[in-house]
Recover the amino acids of this structure.
């Protein structure tokens, strides 16, 4: 595995959801009528920086609203949480309060993070309100279809609501826990290889360590690890093929180092093939859904002509396959990736 400093020069533009994708989201019950929108949350007067327990800037800010605006927002956010978690059953929020709203101007979709607390026992949860972006939604759907993970989100016109994905941020894990005496380093390396393979096939870009989390599950004789993406802003937009391979980001070097130290070329190929086999099983069970998602992309702008050409050229060279030159869209490239995975498993 290799490492280098892959640079993303500018933020990806927001692509509005087209008619085909909107119809798909309704078909698969991802749409909802929300009481407040993303843009309602932008009606703050000023913000206060959010610092971590060590006094470092977190790049999140606390927006300050007039009291009457805040009351309306809090009521609406509780209803949104009920829709996200319980299909709109408001009984689950009877004893919950909105503890705080935080805003991040750093991300592409400038998300709001909402903390909600059960006042009976102080147990809290988070969810996110973001500006709806078509390519991000495609990323969430491909995560649902091609990965072992389930994603929970809702869409309403220009607003996207996402469930919080629990885990230790990848950069924090690499700095504080990756060398833990109780953790099997080979298992961590194995999971990174599989994660890298999924991103390459699904064209999920910019998986620097702070854009994924590590989930740790104690087993009866060891710990199991799973890497989960938490940021889908760079879903098939960039033209550089290496953007879709976490192994090339310097922030992921601790994971690459583990792979170099604990895996051989033979075992890397073995784990890649295992992940490809898992993807084939998922595609077969979700073949109608992935076809509907492919059809929904017709006429949907997701990148630039220059980026599409550059990426299909990069993948043609990566896999030594001239079929990529026939691709006209980013979703064509994903589709060919999946077809090639199916062929490789059948051989």
């Amino acid at each position: 595995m290799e490492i280098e400093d892959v640079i993303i020069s500018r933020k990806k533009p927001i692509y509005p959801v087209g008619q085909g994708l909107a119809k798909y989201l309704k078909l698969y019950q991802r749409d909802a009528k929300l009481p407040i929108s993303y843009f309602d949350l932008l009606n703050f007067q000023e913000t206060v920086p959010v610092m971590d327990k060590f006094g470092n800037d977190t790049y999140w800010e606390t927006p300050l609203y007039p009291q009457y605006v805040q009351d309306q927002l809090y009521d609406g956010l509780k209803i949104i949480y009920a829709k996200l978690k319980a299909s709109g059953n408001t009984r689950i929020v009877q004893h919950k309060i909105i503890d705080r709203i935080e805003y991040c101007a750093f991300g592409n979709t400038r998300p709001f993070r909402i903390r909600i607390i059960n006042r009976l026992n102080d147990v809290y949860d988070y969810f996110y309100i973001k500006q709806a972006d078509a390519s991000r939604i495609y990323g969430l759907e491909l995560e649902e279809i091609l990965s072992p993970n389930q994603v929970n989100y809702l869409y309403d016109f220009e607003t996207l609501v996402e469930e919080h994905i629990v885990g230790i941020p990848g950069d924090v894990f690499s700095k504080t826990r990756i060398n833990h005496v109780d953790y099997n380093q080979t298992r961590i390396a194995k999971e990174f290889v599989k994660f890298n393979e999924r991103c390459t096939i699904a064209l999920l870009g910019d998986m620097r360590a702070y854009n994924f989390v590590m989930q740790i599950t104690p087993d009866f004789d060891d710990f199991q690890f799973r890497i989960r993406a938490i940021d889908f802003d760079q879903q098939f937009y960039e033209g550089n093929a290496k953007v879709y391979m976490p192994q090339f980001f310097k922030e992921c070097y601790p994971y690459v180092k583990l792979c170099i130290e604990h895996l051989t070329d033979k075992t890397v190929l073995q784990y890649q093939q295992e992940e490809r086999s898992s993807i084939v099983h998922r595609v077969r069970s979700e073949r109608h859904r992935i076809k509907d998602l492919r059809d929904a992309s017709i006429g949907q702008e997701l990148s630039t002509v220059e980026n599409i050409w550059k990426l299909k050229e990069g993948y043609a060279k990566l896999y030594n396959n001239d079929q990529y030159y026939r691709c006209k869209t980013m979703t064509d490239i994903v589709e060919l990736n999946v077809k090639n995975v199916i062929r490789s498993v059948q051989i």
User: Anything to note?
Assistant: The mean pLDDT is 93. Residues 19-163 form one domain. The two ends are 25 Å apart (CA to CA).
